[in-house]
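REQUEST ID: PR-0412
SUBMITTED BY: lab tech R.K.
PRIORITY: routine
TASK: structure prediction, single protein chain
INPUT:
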Amino acid sequence: MIEDHVKKGLDFLETTSNNGFYECCISSARDKESLVISPKEIGTSLLVLGTGLKFFNWKSLTKKSINYINSQLEEGIAHFFEDEKLLPSDTDTTSWALSTLVKLNQTPDYDIRNIANKIVSNVNKNGLINIYFNPDKTSRENRVDYVALANILHFVNLCKKRDETKISEEFVFEKLKSQDYLEGSRYYHSPETFLYFTSRLLEFSEFRSKFGDLLYEETKSRIGTTDFPLDLAMRVTIMNRLHSKNKDELDKLISLQEPSGSWPTDSIYRYGSKDGYFTSKNISTAFAIESLMSK
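STATUS: complete
OUTPUT:
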């Protein structure tokens, strides 16, 4: 029964939650367990909340995660690491955090449209939305990442800001159409991550009309190409969003669940300027739960 696998996964997330915070490791490969603990970052906790826990907003586990995320936001702006000296605040983490809270009906006491305005005005000379808000604070070069852009577009469209992001939208669409995404991006190594974030845009009718058919063909072409738990979970979820089924890979994903209730270690993002994958069973377990729960 699907419900049994979901319950076991939630039980695992219960045991690994530290009052809403989820730990992550840094490894040399995306599926390799490591004893090197990452500096405290909110990305893992955000992903767990925005995927597996979003279906269970009445649970104390979810409420603790919401409280933890809120405690890390400064007037709605997010840093990837808790230690703000490590990285400047960024549009990607902020977008995921706020879109997750909005979806959970957690109305913040700040104006998210003002934050959306900051994001859509934070562009490079080509009009593409940058990753960092204030890179000068850490002497970092600003970056554009098309996977992050797909995530950012979801949040700003929740705030009715599509007209101000046309250039970034076309950039994302071109990556899908040209299949450049197959190479992975600076911060997101798996092609499935781009397809997954892009599929979140399907809830907006204009994006479903523009991206839907092509996204279906691209995702279908990826089925069976990899057996990483995150890739499997994402492809199942994407196909569900496209009103199609991916039963074989759903069955494969279920077969990977471990006795602890978790799914094997996997990674969704990596460092951009040096080697290192942020790996966690929490991430793969949360995405697996989402794929089991998605319709």
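NOTES: The radius of gyration is 18 Å.
REVIEWED BY: pending
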